[in-house]
Amino acid sequence: MTQTKKGTLIKIVVKPKSKKFEIKPEKESLIVFCRNAPEKGKVNRELIKELSKLLKCQVTIVSGFTSKEKIILIKNTKSETLESMLRRSP
Questions:
Q1: 57 with 76: CB under 8 angstroms?
Q2: Cα 1 from chain centre
Q3: Residue 84 zone, left/alpha/beta (φ > 0; ψ -120 to 50; rest)
Q4: Which residue, among 87, 18, 15, has the nearest Cα to 55 in the 3D structure?
Q5: What are the distances in angstroms from CA 3 to CA 7, 10, 31, 72, 76?
Q6: What CATH architecture applies to the domain 2-78?
Q7: DSSP-derived 3-state class of residue 86
Q8: Averaged over 46-66, what is the pLDDT?
Q9: How close are the terminal C-alpha atoms of the chain, in Å?
Q10: β-strands 22-26, 29-33: how paired?
Q11: pLDDT tens digits for range 2-52
């Protein structure tokens, strides 16, 4: 996690076609299991929608739109706050 003026940047690895949406922390990144298939931006839309709902913050993809490895920005959130939110998530 990297703190910026706009919020916190997080490196994630997306695993599409999973049974349920789930987040698992791993060393320097997060593994995010998404239900949708990686076609026509479905995974990206699910990722933004579910993370925004879970974290109650605005989420945007900064890089990796067509890759399984992405960098996302959680706007207006400090890294310490984000870490505690992610620990509480199911």
A1: yes
A2: 11
A3: alpha
A4: 87
A5: 6, 9, 19, 12, 10
A6: 2-Layer Sandwich (3.30)
A7: helix
A8: 93
A9: 20
A10: antiparallel
A11: 888 998 899 999 999 999 999 988 877 889 999 999 899 999 999 999 999
**Three-state secondary-structure class, residue 20:** coil
User: Which of 70, 76, 58 lies closest to 8, judged by CA?
Assistant: 76
Which residue is it, tokens 């299991």?
33
Mapping DSSP onto H, E and C, the string for 32-83 reads EECCCCCCCCHHHHHHHHHHHHHHCCCEEEEECCCCCEEEEEEECCCHHHHH
In whole angstroms, what is the distance from residue 66 CA to residue 62 CA?
A: 12
All structural domains of the chain with their residue ranges: 2-78
Tokens 């709902």 found at: 53
Question: How high is the pLDDT of residue 1?
Answer: 82
User: What's at 72, amino acid-wise?
Assistant: I
| pTM > 0.90 | no
